[in-house]
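Entry type: protein chain
Record version: 2
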Amino acid sequence: MLSSALMIRFAPLLATLALIFSCCYLYDIPIPTPTPAPTAVPVCTMHFTKPANGAVLQADSQVDFAWTSVSKATLYIFSESGPGANGSKSNYPTKNTSWPLELSALGGPGNYTAAVQARDSDSNILCQAQLQFSIWSPSPSPTVTQTLTPTPVPTNTKAPKKHIPPPQATPTATSAPTKVPTKIPTKIPPTATLEVPK
């Protein structure tokens, strides 16, 4: 056993060591920090205003795609992809809330997706929206072929003329006829001479 003199000498040292170890143990326990109250996340109400979702658009037209604005947005990225799920995708950054799209420059008839993202000055996505649309190409109007029926050429044969007899002379009432002497004198008077032309 340890002598009491030795115990008295080491007692303060042992007490100090016990105090140090108990303090260190307390320091190793993390102090709970209060959890901050969650901040309200603004609801994204961004949507396309035109064209309508599911719109069918003509291939040779230009269409303005427009959307609602988002507060704190400094940039919008409009994109279109298609036709179909395997079509190419193109992005168009703009500060406006609309983008004109020339449909004839796309991949032809089919189903497409348009999307837009609103971004802040640090390029964080604030909100996004999308819509579906289709492109159709009007088929050319059918060519009307007109079958001409030959018109018979008139011949020079004429129908025989119907013989119309001349009108009959009808006696008309006239004034009394003048008498013409019916006797011709047979003798020439002697004084009368005949002249024969030379």
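Comment: The chain is about 15% helix and 30% strand.
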